[in-house]
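User: Can you help me understand a structure? I only have the sequence.
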Amino acid sequence: MNANSLLGLAVAVWALAAILSPVRVMHRTVRALLGAGCLLGMLACIVALPLGTSPAVLGISLASHPVSFAVEPSGLWLLGFGLVPAIFACWLGSPLAGRSGRWYAGAAFSLLGALGVVGLQDGTSLLVAWEVMSLGGALMLAGERAEENEAKPILLMLALLEVGAVALVFAIILLDHAAGGIGFGSFAGGATTSSDVVSWFAGIALLVGFGAKLGLMPFYEWFPRAYSSGSGATGALFSGVVLNAAYFALSRGWNIWLNVAVHPDTAFGLGVIAIAAGVISAILAVLFAFQQDDWRALLSYSSAENASIAIVMLGVTQLFRADHLPDLAGLAWTVALLHLAGHALAKGALFLTADGVFLASGNYDIVQHGWLKRSGFLLGLGAVFSVMSLASIPPQAGFVSEWYVFQSVFQGFHLSSFVGRLVLVLAGAGLALAAAVALATFVKLFGLGLLGLPDVDVTPLVPRTNAISVGILGLCVLAVAVGAPLWLNALAADAQALFNANSPQAMVAGWLLVPLTDKFAFISPSKLIIVMPLLAILPVALLWLTRRRAVRRVPVWFGGMTTNPRDAMTTALTFSNAMRTFYSFVYQPTISTTREHEQREYFIKRLVFAAGVTDLFERHLFDPAVRIVNRCAEKLRALQSGNLNFYLALIGGLLIAILFLTLL
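Assistant: Let's start by predicting it. Here is the structure, written out as tokens:
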């Protein structure tokens, strides 16, 4: 069975799942169908790589244009890695999903929309698939206790995504007008005759449109609200399938539709904008991730940070292409795909870990309950591998991709422009800051969220199904790093077609991973996975020698006030408060203390302390916009006065205006 047949079967299975989703007794079957569709899609990606799928005409038309389908190798790469955690998320289902079946229908629509975004070959059908994907996300969240917060996170998400959708409509209309056709082939051909102005406006519109779903500033502020109103299963689909599909669409738009070879100055300018926006977004997102005390909010900010890093590499690609350095452009392009592949697996594992914590404790709070000590080896293995990857600790996939990110930025000395070299130097400094804060963030998540002393008040354990899923995904994260010398060959054909370069093959030298040459730098996760266990012999020997001697254990010192170790445990607030104080100009922290009195004001019944951080764009951008809209609505409310004389006066004024225009 070829790849197109497998994808067609996946579409049929997802559609059947959406149809059956309202039937309560079929929900277990629906989960199985959703997971089976993801498995079929993943197999199709494996079968079709490294050449991509063959073009297929679907036999329908939109806006008088026949709809066709074909997936490029980079799209298969991103979709395939995104579907791996989606398999487990769909099979396990959402622990917050109600009986209505909206979550299952939303998951099906999201998957169908993502496949359409990756494979459909004209602007009209792309917009339809994009909206279907957004609708699916809203349905998933609506099926997960949306009434608790009046669905405000969903409305904010849809509002910001529709801003992006308007930008995409503008970009596609602009490209259609310049190319004389709505097909993507026409876009690429028409770019050779279009002006720099068209490329500029189209490129910025594409960045805004797809950046709304990637979490580029200021859009990342819908991430924590929407993710925190849903489950980890929803987060796994958002951060894997949906995010990867959005990045592929942006990469395809910039690298193919705008024809950089004809407009090098435009490519350079767009690259600088993408790098600046991506670096600032990554820093802000990871700084706010560090302050979160909810699994889903922290992981959502981290998703925005990782997507921003991929956007930075897309900008680096444009700088190298504009300077006619195809090999380096191919390097940066490949690194972004490798980064998102490891991110999808690691983030999916941690979102499913969050669901397991919720099922065991009833909340998603990052507190020390000693889950690892009581919930088995597989949960700990998968979680620690995923945390290591997202914190860029060797030999995991995140370490490999982050190492390549810095190696790509370090190649800036090849650029002929001083501005380009300076931009990459500053980008390297900004990404280093983001990487350092990300390390602290995931130390916090693992140390506070999974370690600590077992809570005597919490007897349930993380479900075994979640633990097994997390363990498998964690092993996949390690496999991406160890097998990178093999996997990178899957992108060779696409890099050759886009850049006329063999960058993916040049990134491998035997077991070594190199930035095109082993004379500059190299690493080898494949060898590290052999050497590191050997290095572990030394601490194991020291532990064995220690056990032969008597060990004296004493209580933790806590100012001489307690001998209970649980009272001395670190909380999420105390762990992150130093950073909050140091970066107070970014966080703009808020502190409030409320006193509740009993009978008289002299007797305090309860003291409530609350500390938080300010959402920058909500305060300085979104809230002012909402106030302007409300004021306009107040002024226009007079139109609904119900006064007949007022309405007759309006009609009379319109008639006079029409008569005046006619006489002109």
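Now, to help you interpret it: The mean pLDDT is 86. The chain has 27 helices and six strands. Let me know which part you'd like to focus on.
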